[in-house]
């Protein structure tokens, strides 16, 4: 018998420990082990009951995701049949759950006759986040325990709920402090003595109501339509739960299996699996090994309490780290602190935070107007205006204020970290921490290593990203780093499309329909068109011969149309938020085409998507060649978490692999011919296309 399941006897009870580190993924060996152990329990008259628990740090994270797409995931015994085997066992089977029970792990537990969880356990069905539905009975058993409404919420959100909530909803029977084994053994003994087994698939009461009112499923689908736009899996989850309520048990299970099989091979599921593994891969940095010392961050400092500094300050407070924020003068400081308090208050008002939580976070924040207040900080993040001279001056001053070994970070979006580091006598401690706006919400931190940044500084900042509940991606220095650099060609082409015949609303709609939360013009209106205007002016001064873009953007800025904040930009915003087409902008666009002698033509949505995204991918190829990003997955995570690239497309480089690198290359060659050198295919793109390889093969 394989050691994927460890077997012990506790009196007459057989205890099976799932043993497949690190997360007890239910791969073939583990499924075989459970099956064989159940055979053993059934055959042995001296065994009266079985307890299933997890070895190591959790019960089980579910099916082994790396098996998906291989024959092993469907090989016998498959997980649905293992679950049925448990449920139909003549002897009671009890789940003793600690750590996490997710996906197939929870489905295994739902098939047991009783579930005990320790207080700190989290339990749920996160399959939807992988572009699939639970495939081992989760959509059929959970609603039988919780009722349809709660099951729909849990399954379509993928939430891992704390044990107390799971008990309240009915899918955990008992919650205990500490190790749940003892309580599980006691429950197993009780069940063995009573002889009465509650088989989940036989429970009917909780689904009866939905059976009488099947309209509930359409209503639920409507309620998630906006959030789940573009994703297939959430709606497939609803269909599967509906089958639980409307079909006899075995047919419901069969329906679930059919839907699961239809999704697991889809490109959405492949993309979402890629996103899952990529999110973990970016934490691995080849030249900064896992055992690199990480400095303790007990206190933090932030310089500048504007748009970004305020959000960054909140991140530290949210993570329980005391933070001192320094502003230019008392008035600016008061404004900044007030904005922070207002933001927290809005969260409290929405019921997403308690007043006590807000108060305790605010007490972690101290304001100051002198950088001397940062002398004890372990990390200091500078977030003042994007001006090199100012940043140099601040880092020079920090050098004499900050304690030895403190991490000196800058939130610059574009400036050269090496120049900033050179303003100090300790460039090894200087690093970029590029947060995204709004900094207290967006999950990405583009961490930028300079030439002299020490491995310890990198390891500490990557670890800090996790503590702040962000995804840290390590990148190198170049104008715009990874994200904003790739954004350049995307916005540039959006501009050219206007000159050639499109209007902002059409471009935005095509990109929105592709799956972004908004198109390029709506995005610029949100961020403020003046930001790009300033950057273009700087770039033009630095590099006058190598910059060609549509000047419509400048014309709009010259009118003071900076975006939402001025009530108008590329679009009009009569209510402050909702874009409507602007007649003035249309006039400028059409006039510009005329001035340039361009005959406006009809542009298809497909062309818009290709014209905006392929040059972005092409720039990604350059970023890889230059070593600014370490791997394609680093770029994908930057775009998924920083720019709203649709997760079900996996990120730009994975998307290129999905449509075919050769397809992207061929199109770029066409664009190159039509539009000139700005569209020249990157050598790496050409090399991969000609070798019939993917970015994933790098
Ligand atoms: C599923 O269960 C499908 C079933 O419904 C049906 C199947 C039926 C099919 C048959 C039909 C006929 N597999 O995240 P961490 C790795 S789908 C493989 O850093 P944490 C992870 O990549 C599954 N590997 O740990 C990493 O590897 P690395 C549904 C998995 O403590 C390492 O483990 N379940 C894996 O921060 C540590 O992971 C989920 O979606 C898996 N299932 O968080 C849960 N899970 O070290 C996915 C993890 O090489 N997992 N790994 O980088 C999680 O959400 C998190 O890992 C936990 C732990 C919250 C469990
Ligand atoms: P902002 O204008 O909103 O805030 C800057 C703040 O710095 C102001 O409150 C100002 O009073 C303060 N300040 C200026 N000089 C100071 C000094 N010497 N000491 C202390 N405080 C000082 O700017 P922002 O949008 O928060 O941008 C800050 C930085 O973050 C910039 O480098 C910017 O490029 C970068 N960034 C901005 C965004 C964004 O979307 N706004 C996104 C990522 C990165």
From TrEMBL:
It comes from Hwanghaeella grinnelliae. Gene3D superfamilies: 1.10.1040.50, 2-enoyl-CoA Hydratase, Chain A, domain 1, NAD(P)-binding Rossmann-like Domain. GO terms for biological process: fatty acid beta-oxidation. Keywords: Fatty acid metabolism, Isomerase, Lipid degradation, Lipid metabolism, Lyase, Multifunctional enzyme, NAD, Oxidoreductase, Peroxisome. Its main location: other. The keyword Isomerase applies. In the N-terminal section; belongs to the enoyl-CoA hydratase/isomerase family. It is found in: Peroxisome. GO terms for molecular function: (3S)-3-hydroxyacyl-CoA dehydrogenase (NAD+) activity; enoyl-CoA hydratase activity; isomerase activity; NAD+ binding. Residues 480-573, 608-693 form the 3-hydroxyacyl-CoA dehydrogenase C-terminal domain. Pfam families: 3HCDH, 3HCDH_N, ECH_1. This is 3-hydroxyacyl-CoA dehydrogenase. The keyword Lipid metabolism applies.
């Amino acid at each position: 018998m394989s050691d994927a399941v460890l077997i012990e006897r506790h009196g007459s009870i057989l205890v099976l420990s799932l043993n497949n580190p690190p997360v007890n993924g239910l791969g073939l060996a583990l499924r075989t082990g459970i099956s064989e152990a159940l055979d053993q329990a059934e055959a042995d008259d001296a065994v009266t009951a079985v307890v299933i628990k997890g070895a190591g740090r959790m019960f089980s994270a579910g099916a082994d995701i790396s098996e998906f797409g291989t024959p092993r995931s469907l090989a016998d015994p498959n997980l649905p049949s293992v679950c049925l085997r448990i449920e139909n066992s003549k002897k009671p089977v009890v789940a003793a759950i600690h750590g996490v029970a997710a996906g197939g792990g929870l489905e295994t537990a739902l098939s047991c006759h009783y579930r005990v969880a320790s207080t700190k356990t989290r339990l749920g069905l996160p399959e939807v986040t992988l572009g699939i539905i639970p495939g081992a009975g989760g959509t059929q058993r959970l609603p039988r325990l919780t009722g349809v409404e709660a099951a729909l919420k849990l399954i379509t959100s993928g939430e891992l709920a704390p044990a107390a909530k799971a008990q309240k909803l009915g899918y955990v029977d008992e919650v205990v402090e500490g190790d749940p084994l003892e309580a599980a053994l006691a429950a197993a003994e009780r069940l063995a003595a009573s002889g009465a087994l509650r088989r989940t698939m036989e429970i009917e009461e909780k689904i009866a109501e939905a059976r009488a009112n099947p309209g509930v499923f359409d209503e639920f689908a409507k309620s998630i339509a906006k959030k789940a736009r573009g994703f297939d899996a959430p709606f497939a989850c609803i269909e599967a739960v509906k089958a639980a309520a409307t079909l006899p048990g075995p047919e419901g299970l069969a329906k679930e299996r059919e839907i699961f099989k239809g999704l697991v091979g889809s490109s959405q599921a492949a993309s979402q699996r890629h996103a899952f593994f990529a999110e973990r891969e970016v934490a691995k940095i080849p030249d900064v090994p896992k055992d690199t010392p990480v400095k303790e961050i007990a206190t933090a400092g932030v310089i500048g309490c504007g748009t970004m500094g305020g959000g960054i300050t909140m991140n530290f407070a949210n993570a329980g780290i005391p933070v001192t924020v320094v502003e230019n003068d008392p008035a600016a400081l008061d404004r900044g602190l007030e904005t922070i308090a207002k933001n927290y208050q809005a969260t409290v008002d929405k019921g997403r935070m308690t007043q006590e939580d807000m108060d305790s976070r605010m007490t972690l924040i101290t304001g100051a107007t002198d950088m001397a207040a940062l002398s004890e900080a372990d990390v200091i993040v500078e977030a003042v205006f994007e001006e090199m001279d100012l940043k140099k001056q601040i880092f020079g001053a920090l050098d004499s204020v900050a304690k030895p070994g403190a991490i000196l970070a800058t939130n610059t979006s574009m400036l050269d970290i090496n120049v900033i580091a050179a303003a100090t006598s300790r460039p090894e401690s200087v690093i970029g921490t590029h947060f995204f706006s709004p900094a207290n919400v967006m999950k990405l931190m583009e961490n930028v290593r300079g030439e002299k940044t020490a491995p310890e500084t990198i390891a500490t900042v990557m670890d800090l990203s996790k503590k702040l509940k962000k995804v840290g991606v390590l990148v190198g220095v170049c104008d715009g780093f990874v994200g904003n650099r790739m954004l350049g060609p995307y916005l540039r082409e959006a501009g050219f499309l206007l000159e050639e015949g499109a209007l902002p609303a059409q471009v935005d709609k095509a990109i929105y329909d592709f799956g972004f939360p908004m198109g390029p013009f709506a995005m610029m209106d949100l961020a403020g068109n003046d930001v790009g205007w300033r950057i273009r002016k700087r770039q033009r001064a630095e590099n006058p011969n190598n910059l060609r873009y549509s000047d419509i953007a400048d014309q709009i800025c010259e009118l003071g149309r900076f975006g939402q904040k001025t009530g108008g930009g590329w679009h009009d915003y009569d209510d402050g938020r909702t874009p409507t087409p602007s007649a003035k902008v249309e006039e400028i666009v059409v006039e510009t085409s005329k001035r340039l002698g361009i005959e406006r033509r009809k542009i298809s949505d497909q062309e818009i998507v290709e014209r905006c995204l392929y040059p972005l991918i092409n720039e990604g190829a350059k970023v890889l060649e230059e070593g600014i990003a370490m791997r394609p997955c680093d770029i994908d995570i930057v775009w998924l978490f920083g720019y709203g690239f649709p997760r079900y497309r996996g990120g730009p480089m994975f998307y290129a692999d999905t449509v075919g690198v050769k397809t992207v290359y061929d199109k770029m060659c066409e664009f190159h011919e039509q539009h000139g050198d700005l569209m020249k295919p990157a050598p790496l793109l050409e090399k991969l296309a000609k070798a019939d390889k993917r970015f994933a093969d790098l």
